[in-house]
């Protein structure tokens, strides 16, 4: 197995994973999406809501507001309080405002400043003149497999493309080169070459333009991963946590097998 970093910028991590099976690559993808605990608003106690938005829709919007996941919190199921309602396993985010106003993420007052909304500027609800909104939202750790509120990222991968070129099939490569929307085909020393195979989207436009000379396939042992975090934690940490979780499950499995 080999991992090569391609890009890490603005919450997006791109890397190449080589010499693994599709099942292994997918287990990493699914663990990031579903198995890494993150902080999200799970419950909203509405005291007063004069806005045009119903309590249910307001709670839904709050749940979908990504929060930064601080270190050190317990899952409600692991906490001694048993209710998910103590400072070890929950964060309160309260609000008390009278309009006119546009309520944004930054208006929520978290009991732990480290669990603030990722995007302070994102609007949640608009209040008209004299309208009041009062609530206490409770954020807890949870898993993407239970609700999308806790899904920490968008994770995708594609197989590495393989473009076979029969250099003897043609003398004129013009239409083949021009057919590629990603502009990754070029002519070098009278031969057609691929300049950046990782940019290939498998659209097969080159295959349609030059079926006599080109064959497009994929390498199912190499994967180009793209992890775009909601901002709840850096994408590098998401991947590391997912690997730790997978490793922990494998170790647990081994321990149980050894008891037989
Ligand atoms: Zn607790």
Automatic annotation (TrEMBL):
Part of the RNA polymerase complex. SMART domains: RPOLD (SM00662). It holds the Pfam family RNA_pol_A_bac. This is DNA-directed RNA polymerase subunit Rpo3. Binds 1 [3Fe-4S] cluster. DNA-dependent RNA polymerase (RNAP) catalyzes the transcription of DNA into RNA using the four ribonucleoside triphosphates as substrates. It is an enzyme of class 2 (transferase). PROSITE patterns: 4FE4S_FER_1, 4FE4S_FER_2. One of its GO terms (molecular function) is oxidoreductase activity. InterPro entries: 4Fe4S_Fe-S-bd (IPR017896), 4Fe4S_Fe_S_CS (IPR017900), DNA-dir_RNA_pol_insert (IPR011262), DNA-dir_RNA_pol_RpoA/D/Rpb3 (IPR011263), RBP11-like (IPR036603), RNAP_Rpo3/Rpb3/RPAC1 (IPR022842), RNApol_insert_sf (IPR036643), Rpo3/RPB3_RNA_Pol_subunit (IPR050518). Belongs to the archaeal Rpo3/eukaryotic RPB3 RNA polymerase subunit family. It comes from the Archaea. Its cofactor is [3Fe-4S] cluster. It catalyses: RNA(n) + a ribonucleoside 5'-triphosphate = RNA(n+1) + diphosphate. Its EC number is 2.7.7.6. Residues 161-190, 191-219 form the 4Fe-4S ferredoxin-type domain. Its main location: cytoplasm. GO terms for cellular component: cytoplasm; DNA-directed RNA polymerase complex. It is found in: Cytoplasm. GO terms for biological process: DNA-templated transcription. Keywords: 3Fe-4S, Cytoplasm, DNA-directed RNA polymerase, Iron, Iron-sulfur, Metal-binding, Nucleotidyltransferase, Transcription, Transferase. [3Fe-4S] cluster binds at residues 200, 203, 206.
